[in-house]
Amino acid sequence: MRILKVTFAFLAAALLISPQASAAEPTAADTPNLAQATTVGVHNTYSPDAYGYLAQSLDAGTSLVELDAWDDFLTGHWQVSHDNPVGNDNNCVATSTAAGLYSGNTNQDLGACLGDIRVWLAAHPTAGPIFVKIELKAGFQSTYGMGPSQLDSYIKANTGNAVFRPADLLGSYSTLDAAAQANAWPSRSALAGKMIIEVIPGTVELSNPTDTLHTDIEYATYLKNLYASGNIGNAMVFPSVLGAASGDPRTQYSDTSIRPWFVFFDGDASSYIDGGIDTSWYDTNHYILIMTDAQSVSPAISDTTPTVDEATARVQLLAAHHASVASSDWTTLNTVLPLVLPRG
Questions:
Q1: Structure confidence by residue, pLDDT tens digits, 111-160
Q2: Whole-Å CA distances, 228 to 140, 173, 222, 233, 274
Q3: Which residues pair with 200 in a beta bridge?
Q4: Helix 215-228 vs helix 148-159: angle between axes, to the nearest 10 degrees?
Q5: 8 A C-beta contact, residue 234 and residue 226
Q6: Angle between helices 148-159 and 110-123 in degrees, nearest 10
Q7: Distance between CA atoms of 39 and 290, rounded to whole angstroms?
Q8: How many CB atoms lie within 10 A of CB 298?
């Protein structure tokens, strides 16, 4: 497949700089809009096993950062860890300076993790955009004051103006679906210095038989109601439809009024590709499609240390199948993580 000319220059530059010099910074020519490009992300980016400090993932060139969050209603904070609902286990620090991103105490909360990304972007103003995937492990706890509106306020307090919001895509359109189908996404260069946050249901939430209102439905309903009340500008994240499926997976929602508020889709790469799902639908409608576990597509390659050629070919394959982001655990592949390919 054809690779953008900028990618060759990008890779050449990445080979000549140290990781902390930021392989992620695009050139001025890197101007396809958000829905026209395929980039690369790192699974569970917050884990100390992945990077000593979260900022190092951005230095390495990742275009997607994943954060697992638990709502701790006793403290009013979202904790970031894989399996500890009341504590933090991560590589985030609390800093207001770029120099502080690589020292100090880790194991901070979600606000600090988002703050790290904001500080890093401020120090690299031509870099980005950075997708931030938040998995709400146990879902929202609106009854205890940790619902969608509180999450938005929390994100705003820790990111300032560094987030591309649903309202920024919406513009004068009546739904996010209408805006996406009109291809109203800005160019990547216009989104430099920005993060774009998606939220997905969590594994604990999905396995909890008493939780009948999952994150995707709750946030999409909230978005719809914000728009109706004239307050859509308060929303900071895009809800994502989780799981690969044929056709339009939004038909799973019995409330048809929330379907047009989903333009992000997130699922297993092998389910899409090996399962024969026609993913051109996502591209045609300019939706954002995040394919996880890129390494598992047949023939499977290493999930941590494939060769550069293997990983590059895999990203090219997923781009040909209309992925917006190809995600894996290739933390050390600093010439693969910065790839920006044409989608489709």
A1: 999 999 999 999 999 999 999 999 999 999 999 999 999 999 999 999 99
A2: 22, 13, 10, 12, 40
A3: 135
A4: 80
A5: yes
A6: 40
A7: 10
A8: 8
Tokens read off for 128 = 């980005």
200-204 — which CB contacts under 8 Å span 24+ positions?
200/133, 200/134, 200/135, 200/136, 200/240, 200/242, 200/266, 201/135, 201/136, 201/139, 201/242, 202/68, 202/135, 202/136, 202/137, 202/138, 202/139, 203/135, 203/137, 204/85, 204/137, 204/138, 204/139
CA distances from 296 to 39, 108, 129, 162, 291 (A): 17, 31, 26, 33, 11
Rounded to 5 degrees, φ, ψ at 155 are -65, -45
Instruction: Read off the tokens for 312.
Output: 């590059």
Over residues 274-322, the pLDDT tens digits come to 999 999 999 999 999 999 999 999 999 999 999 999 999 999 999 999 9
pLDDT for 20 equals 38
Token pair, residue 6, equals 């900028």
Q: What is the DSSP letter of 74?
A: T
Return the structure tokens found at 89: 């286990």
Residue 11 has pLDDT above 50, yes or no: no
Q: Which residues, 6+ apart, have CB-to-CB distance to 11 below 8 Å? A: 335, 338, 339
Angle ∠(239,144,136) on CA atoms, nearest 5: 30
Rounded Cα–Cα distance for residues 172 and 152 (Å) = 22
**Backbone φ and ψ of 126, nearest 5°:** -95, 0
**67, 45, 47: which is closest to 58 by C-alpha?**
45
Rg (alpha carbons) of the chain, rounded to whole number? 19
Residue-by-residue DSSP string for 257-295: GGGGG--EEEEEHHHHHTTT--THHHHHTT-EEEEE-GG
| Peptide linkage before 85 cis (omega within 30 of 0) | no
pTM (two decimals): 0.91
Which H or E element spans position 40?
strand 37-42
> Cα 162 vs. chain centroid, distance in angstroms?
14
In the chain, the N- to C-terminal Cα span, in Å, equals 9
Amino acid identity of 295? Q
